[in-house]
Hints:
The protein is α+β, with helices and mostly antiparallel strands. The chain has helices spanning 4-14, 20-23, 37-52, 60-69, 90-96, 107-113, 132-144; strands at 56-58, 74-78, 101-104, 122-125. A 4-stranded mixed sheet has the order 1-4-2-3, with helices on both faces. β2, α5 and β3 (101-104) form a beta-alpha-beta unit. α3 runs antiparallel to α7 (132-144). The protein is globular. 32% of the residues are buried.
Amino acid sequence: MAREKPEAAAEAEATPERSYREQLDFLNPIAQPLASRKLTRKLLKCIRKASKHKQLRRGVKEVQKFINKGEKGITVLAGDTLPIDVYCHIPIMCEDRSLPYAYVPSKSDLGAAAGSKRPTCVIMIKPHEDYQETYDECLEEVSALPLPL
């Protein structure tokens, strides 16, 4: 049994990941504002750092609960989540509370950056002094993205 696990991990690593352009084919119509390739990498890097310090909120229920409580942070949504009814209310909640949010193309990349094997459709990154510089860069760029009409 112990032999099968490393082989399965090797097979998972061998499967080619989709490029940014290929992931764009699976986006939802509501995935606006979409982070650029460069900003997506920065956001995923910031999520990795935040997960080490336990400064993440993962999943629709948890993010929704803490947005309602008034917690501040950057909300990152996956653009390939179906059905969109699952999380289509989150951007409206963010706009009402003046929280920055952005979409990234892949929910599996979002889950992997958070240190999970499971894909996740919504993550909120909370500020922390250990990665404040990366967080501020992401916050500035996400805030500069144009909001949908």
